[in-house]
Amino acid sequence: MSLGGFDTHAGERVWQEALLRQLDEALTGFVDRMARTEAGRRVTVLVYSEFGRRVRANASDGTDHGTAGPVFVLGHGVTGGCYGEQPSLTDLDDGDLKATMDFRDIFGTVLASVLQGDPDRYLGGYRAQLLPIVTAD
User: Fold this and answer.
1) Which residue, among 29, 63, 61, 64, has the nearest Cα to 45 in the 3D structure?
2) Percentage with pLDDT > 90 across the chain
3) Lowest mean pLDDT among 6-10, 19-23, 87-91, 131-135
4) Nearest of 96, 101, 38, 95 to residue 72 by alpha carbon
5) Pairing mode, strands 52-53 and 71-75
6) Which three-class secondary structure state does DSSP give residue 12?
7) Cβ of 105: how many Cβ atoms within 10 Å?
8) Which residue spans within the chain are E strands per DSSP?
9) Residue 112 and residue 132 in contact, taking contact as beta carbons nearer than 8 Å
10) What pTM value is reported for the model?
11) Do the strands 52-53 and 65-66 form a parallel or antiparallel pair, or are they unpaired?
12) How far apart are CA 91 and CA 130, in angstroms?
């Protein structure tokens, strides 16, 4: 599923707060409902943005498309915490954040740990570094 509206080039703070609240309430409700059953406790949710935002605000008090978008992994078997380094707000790549973790490592971990798939088969030759983000059942 998708949640649109994050392409906020103007007045970003108000829109981002409302959108993130909507995302939080929907995901919290879904994960809480899934936790009520054995089958639901095997559900893992992966949330990502197809693009990041630039660090510096534009003239309309928003930000433009950038890199290094966020990824959230939720579910009963997910180990909490932050993975990767906090990106620098000053050491930028032409105005963009520098990614500190390759998305394919996260996706590869979910493929291997949740779907029991072989990440090498799906990642086009990229060898994923598997992360301790999902506990084994």
Assistant:
1) 29
2) 48
3) 6-10
4) 101
5) unpaired
6) helix
7) 21
8) 44-48, 52-53, 65-66, 71-75
9) no
10) 0.81
11) antiparallel
12) 27
DSSP 85: P
Each residue's pLDDT tens digit, 25-75: 999 999 999 999 999 999 999 998 877 778 887 888 777 777 888 889 999
Q: What is the spatial distance between Cα 45 and Cα 35, in angstroms, rounded to a whole number?
A: 12
Torsion over CA: 32, 131, 53, 47 (sign): negative
Q: Let me know: does 65 contact 97? Beta carbons within 8 Å.
A: no
Place of tokens 């009520």: 36
Q: How far apart are CA 104 and CA 120, in angstroms?
A: 10
Which of 43, 46, 22 lies closest to 34, judged by CA? 43
Residue 64 in tokens: 């433009």
74 vs 97: CA distance, rounded Å: 24
Using alpha carbons, select from 106, 64, 66 the residue that is nearest to residue 84: 106
Residues 6+ apart with CB under 8 A from 44: 73, 74, 75, 77, 78, 110, 114, 134
Decide: 44 and 94 in contact? Cβ < 8 Å: no
Contacts of 63 (CB under 8 A, 6+ apart): 8, 9, 12, 53, 54, 55, 56, 57
